[in-house]
Write a structure and sequence with these properties.
With 436 residues, the protein is of the alpha/beta class. The chain is built from 16 helices and 16 strands. Strands 3-2-1-4-13-14-15-16 form an eight-stranded mixed beta sheet, with helices on one face. Strands 5-6-7-8 form a four-stranded parallel beta sheet, sandwiched between helices. Strand 7, helix 5 (163-177) and strand 8 (183-189) form a beta-alpha-beta unit.
Amino acid sequence: MNIDTLIHAGWIVPVIPENTVYHQHSIALADGCIVDIVPWKQAVEQFHAQATIELRQHCLMPGLINTHTHAPMSLMRGIADDLKLMDWLQNHIWPLEQQWVSEDFVAVGTRLAIAEMLLSGTTCFNDMYFYPETVTQVVAGLGIRATIGLILIDAPTNWAKTTDEYISQGLAVHDIVRNEPLVNTAFAPHAPYTVCDANLLRMRALVEEMEIPIHMHVHETSDEVSNAIAETGKSPVQRLAELELLANGFIGVHMVHVSEPDRALYAESGAHVVHCPSSNLKLASGFCPIQQYVSDGINIALGTDSAASNNRLDMFTEMRSAALIAKAVAHDASAIPAHTALSMATINGARALGIDTVTGSLEAGKSADLIAIDMDDIVTRPMFNPISQLVYATHCHQVTDVWIAGKHLVQSGKLSSMDITQLKYDVDRWQQQLDS
């Protein structure tokens, strides 16, 4: 059989079937999709490839899915560290955004974020930020997979001044995305405390018509929950349920402080949770009870949040942190085993975004979104269990190659789709402005 590419790997971790490792196997790619995964010897006999790649000391796995980002905020990495969430937002981040956020800010910040994500093995991200049309343009030009947030917030910003503008401009972005095969959209209301009921209901009507997800910060801090109960008599989750927003297409980010009744309500709705362990730690938001969510049958994905609140967009760190924190919170060393954390960073993110038939695992017929990790490194020796090594020991810098829809975007640790020298120049230019 004639194919485009045949990759021989030491180990292949497909994620589906769960907790499975194929030793000394090859993956065949054609027309941007996965054809098959077979042993080395069978691959040589079965396939005639235009290109054959030898990665016999590497592990191949699905590309990582960062299910919550604010990509342009990478330009604010380290600008207001070690502050409480509302102090950080109200006194530093929001004033800077009001002063500086523009199309160029968003374009440069998005390129910076994508460079970091690609080099560390992320092949898909779910974004929430202003000027989503600019994010879409950068994403499409660089060939990464993404879901672009259609922002909604009850406050004027540089991008939109009124609810009508937010919605009309968001719908225009959705129309643009229709022609981009790697890009989808989701409505992205910022949080329950920044979007009123009337605007959430307007959004709900559009979501039902457009059949796209909702991506929203929910129950991030204890203050958010207690303030909501004091003002409305309801928790944010209860309010969202009454507005009929909680459903299979709802993606709640953080979900740190959730009562048992709210957890049951959320689980019954079929909504998803995005866990952001590093950001939660850095902003002292608390410990997300993900083992309880897993026991409730809730789909848990992982996200980094922004580089402004995390400082890194490294999904390997998020996997390790999620597994370790879950064990401590549950007082159970068996909570969130390595293969579960790996699923959270791959197929669970795809499920939350509604693209699990396309990506998130290495299966015949799915898009060729995969990464190669060099396991011939002192930190991943000896190799008793490749999945444990991926979650607990691997550094993101061990990622050597990245393919998205069959396109080889990172080769031997080098980006093939971006001028890094120009990117650094543009980032330095923005640093000078933000620091002025």
